[in-house]
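The protein record now logged underneath.
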Amino acid sequence: MFSREEKKDLNTSFFQLFTQRMSRHKSLGGGGSRWESYSTGVRGIFFRLLTFPAVGLAIDLQFKDEEIRALFYDQFEEFKAMLSRHMGEEVIYEPRTMLDSGVPISRIWVKLEGAHFYDQEQWPAIIDFYEVKLLALDEFWALGGEVIKGLAR
């Protein structure tokens, strides 16, 4: 496939293009100006751009305490209809999955079917997908995020 250095170069090139595209948008939900590292304001909740093996956008609940992770997951399930409405599609809920590092998480995500991140010809469609979905997630976070942040307090 690709060497480690080639993947790094492709990632750098892609995210430069992505950052340029997203620079014209301002976050409604308080995520800051760096869309690729959106700040949710809650330690343990991350919005992640997935690149491999699937292209997607995820809300990862990465709390060490399983009961706390379950509490936040349940709250996101309460917002399932609202989140799906914002995303424009049914959102995938996974109560327990593992990161490559072996860390257990809960993941809520949408996927761009048939996309391959390292195929540069697909980058315009992938950037479009990320833009639309991140803006929708940001809008959702502006409305429902305060309730979720309240759990963390």
Q: What stands out?
A: Residues 33-152 form one domain.
